Give the backbone structure.
Amino acid sequence: MQKIITLAVLFMLTLSAQMARAEDGETSDPRVSVRTIEPERDVGYTVGDILERTIILEAKKPYQLLETSLPITGNEQKRKNKGSGIEVREVRLEKSTGVNTNTYTLHLSYQVFTNNIVAKPAILPAEIVKFSGEGKNFEIRIPSWSFRISPLAVYGSVVVERDMSGFRGPLTLDAKRDYQLLWLALGVLGISLLGLLYVLGTYSWLPRMGGPFARAYRDLRKLSATPEDLSQGVARVHEAINATAGNSVFDSAGLLKRKPGFAPMSAELERFFGLSRNVFFEPAAPHGIADDPLGWLRQFCRRCRDCERGLK
Amino acid sequence: MSSSDSQLADWRDHALKLESEINKVVVGQQQPIRLITTAIFARGHVLLEGDVGVGKTTLLRAFTRGIGGGYERIEGTIDLMPNDLVYHTYLGEDGRPHVDAGPLLRCGESLAVFFFNEINRARPQVHSLLLRVMAERTLSAFNKEHYFPHMLVFADRNQVEKEETFDIPSAARDRFMMEIPIAVPNDSDIMESLIFDTRFHNADKLVENVQPDVLHFDKLNDIAVALQDHVQASPTLRKYALDLWLATRNPGQYGVKVDGVDLQRLVLAGASPRGVSMMMRAARVNAWLNNREAVLPEDIHVIFHETVAHRLVFSPVYEMRRTEIARELLSGIINAISAP
């Protein structure tokens, strides 16, 4: 009795193992091996969706697939005289021959023609294909594959916080325009920061650049050798001296007291104030600059610029 | 060199000679002496301000000796009345009342220096009379108009004593070309000699050391006109002087700052047109004394404080710190205004 129970248990286990293998897409016929490649997901299909499955049948020689046994395009399997709503859309067969085997790759496309207001279970139906060889025919069953058909719209009131399907992912807005605005704003910000840096650097890109004498020198280069331009140039250098000292300066001592770094320019500063006196206050006053006072003024301003940059 | 130029050069020598004479008897006061010389040739009245016993009176007496001409002096007292300047009455030996001319009228038109000692002790009525005499150099008395074409008023006051004194009103202050501060010399050698050198102990004898009549007082008006015509002011300098003037009226607008002072409230009245005109006259004289034919900004700087500070009218809240604030304000104006 004990032995009979043991055998029965073993038989049941073997049978269930066989069934499990069949559900996994493999059959146990020694002449033909069946392997299936199913769609990636088994939920979220709705009316009009196409599901594709691939069945690889590997038959030992001399067994061959009877192509007349393949599913027919447009066929819809019925259950209890009601259409399942899953229709064969396309059947495509590829054949290859090995040393001992014939391999058939069957591509099946099904289209869903049904829907429901709530999720609905469905199956890609099991298919029976026939093989022949050694004067005999036999059938091989391709296992069914279960999936769920989803409704087109959520039935009833929608609570967005609970509508968190991992398959759909988060709802996203079109952010293209926002990204464009973001880049534009970043561009403006970058230019503004550069401008701010320039302003904080007292209008110079490098330390000690763009000082009063450097700016005055640039202006002096634009002047021509006329009395009007000479007086304009002297006034421009006065401006630079005043800006450097931080107050109005009327003689060389006034600048040297505030900026001892200009000490090497002491004698030339005296000459400059002599020139200024001649130009602005007393035309008869000697200034000791023989000719081309504007040229001398440019050179003087340039040397002051060098002092300003700490080069002297 | 034209005759006018040579005449001006001669007078410059006289002026420098006068300075050196004064410097012999009043030591350590080169700058005030230069300023008073400037005022004499600019024909401006002078107010000296300083502590007691620093030599203000001696300095002015020394100048009056050097200038020559009629010299009169009066002491400011609380009971001094305007008529005391014009006449005085007394009973003569014959027992009858007599009326004599007072200090203002005694020398007639040859009055060169009227020295008002301690002017701030006199009453405002006296200031009022003086105001007219200083401005117009005329006086109506005894049914007659009296003229003092060569007269300069030298006055002194000390700011320390407040008892029995009267503040000189701004209108009277404005008649003075300069208010010159007189301070104790810093040089310790000079300070020592002031203590131990006996020649400084008797002011009357000390003043006698000044060569009299170095200048011809009755020629000063003409030479003053000549030098004002001779010394030029360029358009740039005119603009600079104008900016300085405007800055005294509204210093905040020119970026001037004074510590602890609200500049919007400080100045009630800046320099007057007469004051700025006097400033430029003094600047021209300074240029001439330095042998220049045109005024430079430095010529204005030398006399700026002395010709402008006493004319400014401050809010009463700042009057107690007047000297300190005026000096800082005017230095700030010089530092803020550029030329060109």
